[in-house]
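Chapter summary example.
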Amino acid sequence: MDTAVIQKDLGVPVGDTIFGKTVGIVDHKFVSSMKKGSYLVNIARGRLLDYQAVFDHLQSGHLGGLGIDVAWMEPFDPEDPILKFPNVIITPHVAGVTEYSYRTMAKV
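The structure predicted for these 108 residues follows.
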């Protein structure tokens, strides 16, 4: 890690910007560099993942699974082919919706 920092080679992926929003940071190159069988989890923004890259790597077996609580398109299409994979799970994007978080927001 020290060498990577000194050489400024942190492997930070760069995406494209469309209408001021970054998309496709996790692309074919990024997913290909992941260890075979890795699980990809996205709880940030759906458009950070390149849909086709994720789909292709799930289909080939390179990705061990996908866990998301955000989608490429909202609302999420319940017929999306990516949901047909048995190793894909999608949950509602509500992790921050708690009594504690609402009380804290109210104080701020």
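To summarize the output: The longest strand covers residues 63-68.
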